[in-house]
Amino acid sequence: MDSLSNSEQKVSAPLSGFEPSAPTLLSRFGRWWGRKGDGNAKPDVVADAKAHAKAVALPARVLRRQREQLRQCFDARLTDSAANAAAQTWRAEYEAAGDDARQAMLGVLAEVAASGSAQAEDEAKDGNADKSASGPPQATSNARIRFFKRLAALHGQEGASVCGLHFLIGLRADMLRWHKRVPGLRPLDDDLEALFSNWFDVGLLELQPITWDSPASLLEKLIRYEAVHEIASWADLRNRLDSDRRCYAFFHPRMPREPLIFVEVAFVPEMAANVHALLDEAAPLEDLRRVKWAIFYSISNTQAGLRGVSFGNFLLKRVIEELQREFPKLKQFATLSPIPGFADWLRKRDGDAVAKVLGDKRLARWSERHGTPPADGAGWLAALPADSEDAMVRDIALALAAHYLVRERQQALPADPVARFHLGNGACVERLNWAADLSRKGRAQSCGMMVNYLYVPEALDDNLVRLGNGSPRMSRAVGKLL
């Protein structure tokens, strides 16, 4: 139910020509989660950026002009009108450029940023820089931050152009997408992530409902940004926004028409076990006077450039508060979530590793009914068809999924990204559901299984402590599968 982890999610471009990679929005562990994976190496970013700049196809005249523009932006004060004009020109060129030219421009930006600015170096030498700073490196960082603040304050030159803050989100999405191709982007990305963590602090965001009566442009963005269960038609969207459904999104005051993250909610009489039933357009409306469960069945992050900025967990908690305010008798909250990493994890296991998870008794029962067990994890995947009605197939698959969700770790946190998000919010692994998502995507990523994470508001903090101690909260039913 959560696009924060979904490598197949659709994210539309915040700027013309952007094709940001999928994000993965973003719990209180979001900063750890959002690292780019390029290790701790610290290459000579100046030399690397210069080498890259020489290799791209920017004409020498353009290259020289952009260096001058950027140095002016880095050196001048934020109130300098000439530097602001130079920043506006650089931004306009970037927006109009194709992917190859944008990579070249980022290479020049990395080169100029790594070489520092004259003002920053002078401040460091004269002792006028931040007293808590560590000399020239911090002064250079201050120059980079000044450049980003300058861009954030700009407005588009045309009516349809995005605000400066939205432009920076798109710029960082490109940095994340191309950081392996363009050397020297890591310091720029780190500074932008730190700025975004302040600028998009949850206290500054506005939680707003989205309904069928919302502007058509906003509804179109829901269709485009939906990353978990594709919205197939306007009728599908209307069903998701009907009277027995709710949709909430976080907005930033500077970007009032651009949802940052949104959650879709269904009201049902019992904890949902099948996404197809939830999305059935022919199903009758639920009687809200008798509603017992609120099911979060989709969370979609919309901005790849905000990766590592954590507000998804605050969204769910705020939505729970809103729902309790609207329905005082509503006490039960859960998700219906995919298990996006399960198939890849199982595919990489050897036979001994799978046998250790399943145990001798399960393997013996399998052998009695199906003969010799598969030789490795890939073989087990093939032997666990998502629509099988065989109780043994279902038991084996659920046992493997329970182990994966509860016991598999990645740097002390749950290996599955959606589990990492919800358990990091203080939820409980409540129930595993067989044949819950028989779409092609559901079959491919988790053999059609889905999981309910239970949110009990008064237990969230205690569950977080348990997670920190390496023992995530789970129900008895899930525990029996282990």
TrEMBL record:
Q: Sorted alphabetically, which keywords does the UniProt record give?
A: Lyase
Q: List the GO molecular function terms.
A: malonyl-CoA decarboxylase activity
Q: Where is the composition biased (Polar residues)?
A: 1-10
Q: What superkingdom heads the lineage?
A: Bacteria
Q: Which InterPro entries match?
A: Malonyl_CoA_deC, Malonyl_CoA_deC_C, Malonyl_CoA_deC_C_sf, MCD_N, MCD_N_sf
Q: Which residues form the Malonyl-CoA decarboxylase C-terminal domain?
A: 203-455
Q: GO:BP terms for this protein?
A: acetyl-CoA biosynthetic process; fatty acid biosynthetic process; malonyl-CoA catabolic process
Give every Malonyl-CoA decarboxylase N-terminal domain span: 138-200
Annotated region Disordered: the residues are 1-23, 117-140
Which Enzyme Commission numbers does its entry carry?
Answer: 4.1.1.9
Q: Where is the signal peptide?
A: none
Identification of the protein by name: Malonyl-CoA decarboxylase
The organism named in the record is: Cupriavidus basilensis
